[in-house]
Amino acid sequence: MRRSFSGASRWAAVSTCCALLSLAQPAGAQPAEPSVAVTIDVDASRPQGELKPVWRFFGTDEPNYATMKDGRELLAHLGELKPKAVYFRAHQLMNTGDGTPAFKWGSTNLYTEDKDGNPVYDWTIVDHMIDTYLARGVRPYLQLGFMPEALSSAPAGTPYQHSWRPGFAYNLIEGAWNYPPKDYRKWAELIYQWTRHNVEKYGKAEVESWYFEVWNEPDGPSYWKGTPEEFNKLHDYAIDAVRRALPTARVGGPDAASGGGKFMDQFVAHVARGTNHVTGQKGTPTDFLAFHAKGQPSFVDGHVRMGIATHIKRVDTAFGKIAAVPELATKPIVIGESDPEGCAACPGPANGYRNGTMYSSYTAASFARIWALADKHKVNLEGVLTWAFTFEDQPYFAGYRQLASNGLDLPVLNVFRMFAKLGETRIAATSSAQLPLEAIIAEGVRGTPDVGTIATTTRDGKVAVLVWNYHDDDVAGPDAAIKLNLSGLGRGGGRKVVEWRVDRTHANAYAAWQAMGSPQSPDEKQYRQLEKASQLLPEPARDLAVRSGRASLDVVVPRQGVTLLLFERAGR
């Protein structure tokens, strides 16, 4: 039997937030107006190029959660999406401490010093983390940070671990962990020894498949207390150390908060043509570039209003800047954190989108635009990392940005399951109600809803059509009544149609929890009901007549809903 919570005091701390979340998406809410008529046309005979699975990257501030009960289960669910091709990024992997997690905190104690100042390496905790990833089909996007206490150049008396908690000012996460090293050679030797250890333990071929990047958001005061040039030095020493241990390692960065800001400009110039702080040569080895892009939700007239325009605009600007640097224009890009807003552990009414289908529909709509921006700028987009995981032993649906709550998958995770079912080749697809990319960047989705689509074919001939009905405002709205027209299906036989849905009544544990009265301590029977409600299950398969390679069917997608339709030849 799974755990239940009797800690009323913990619930008191988040009761206001949970009340707002309940208001944000009432269970079983009905559309306030008649359906909107939409036409979607899909032509399977017109390939539009590769659709890269950029969605297979995830991450979290709290690294130790990954080895705990719910963390292990969620990692397994992520690994099942695309085994050995899903990547996980975590902060705090080099922090000093005993491995006890807290909000926006974790530690591995991989580096300390003896009384004479000699290094003491201990890989026990960090090995356990990586073992946990690999056992579940997930690989590391290995963040080299933050600064071990013995190496920190922080002024004497600076606390090492912060005491931040949800609701506190964000700058209280600062501490001695975010300072440059007092000895760059010891810093480099630590990175070298860790990389060499990983190669010895996991094998050269395995570690070659990982990503190595240095630090997090070095352009902001919360994560970096040095200057931009000091970060370039930190980066150069770390990358040189990784490559000394494994010359074929995949290295990059800098996972800057702003991909279009001055910090990114100077970093790109440094790695492309600046003087390397270690070698004295031109440039720094760079296999990929990474930046962050976030949205900006608000709380307006009693409801959440998302800021998808801010999110997509930041991606647009960063892609444009990278594409303009000849030495780096073709390098793979990973958006190292791509989310509706900035702080996964921070509560507040503007973040009331997190448990329900607003988060899942936003995810579908935003990924579609990021794919489109990669095409627009002709950049090599390799990954879009969702900064969401789970918060262990917290109240049910407490309102953090996560993929699961107490072992119950949230609707947003089921959209990633839909992404995993898409094919490798994009095909022509248009929707009469899909907003243009330029309109999303300029205004978001504040008027008519965005009823959009992506369609693909798989290697075995299946056609997959993803449809979403998104709006920035989390209020009741019309369903989309869709006439889906397919062509280019080829000769012979009909098709079988399988449909998956994420909406207010499907694949939605949060709505089911609300419907049973939002129990603070679900019993075993209630928990099993919630588990079932969280699952992405197919609707009964239907036969579809195909004539001269054409077919059509009617589909209804509720406001903030996402639907996936898979068409395969009848008889398979």
From TrEMBL:
Keywords: Glycosidase, Hydrolase, Signal. InterPro entries: GH, GH39_as, GH39_cat, Glyco_hydro_39, Glycosyl_Hydrolase_39. Residues 39-536 form the Glycosyl hydrolases family 39 N-terminal catalytic domain. Residues 1-29 form the signal peptide. Gene3D superfamilies: Glycosidases, Glycosyl hydrolase domain, family 39. Belongs to the glycosyl hydrolase 39 family. This is Beta-xylosidase.
